[in-house]
Write a structure and sequence with these properties.
alpha+beta, Pyrimidine Nucleoside Phosphorylase, Chain A, domain 2, two-stranded parallel ribbon, about 15% strand, EC 2.4.2.4, Nuc_phospho_transferase, 1,4-alpha-oligoglucan phosphorylase activity, Glycosyl_Trfase_fam3
Length: about 120
């Protein structure tokens, strides 16, 4: 299991692409979001990928249908690039863990595979 954050060397052009999406009002373009997300994921040479696509209040996409479309795009492109990929749609309106906060949520998520 790996949990990483973005660095400027991982996908150096992504910051420029995002700035371009911002000034061209295409921030919510599913193909461009997919490219941005997968540029970072595929740069790591993964064998498999599980994506958590959020739905609900605070999610990146405003509706279930758009979240589902994003998940389908990510899975299709990543599988096409040779990385076995699946996506989970998880509800931002529901508590997903017994704790709240970045560090404790990560600790809890990492503990799940160990039972």
């Amino acid at each position: 299991m790996a949990i990483i954050g973005q660095t400027s060397s991982l996908a150096p052009a992504d910051k420029r692409f995002y700035a371009t999406r911002d000034i061209t009002a295409t921030v919510d373009s599913i193909p461009l979001i997919t490219a941005s997300i997968l540029a970072k994921k595929l740069a790591e040479g993964l064998d498999a990928l599980v994506m958590d696509v959020k739905v609900g209040s605070g999610a990146f996409m405003p509706t279930y249908e758009l979240s589902e479309a994003l998940a389908e795009a990510i899975v299709g492109v990543a599988n096409g690039a040779g990385v076995r990929t699946t996506a989970l749609l998880t509800d931002m309106n529901q508590v997903l863990a017994s704790s709240a906060g970045n560090a404790v949520e990560v600790r809890e998520a990492v503990a799940v595979p160990d039972g």
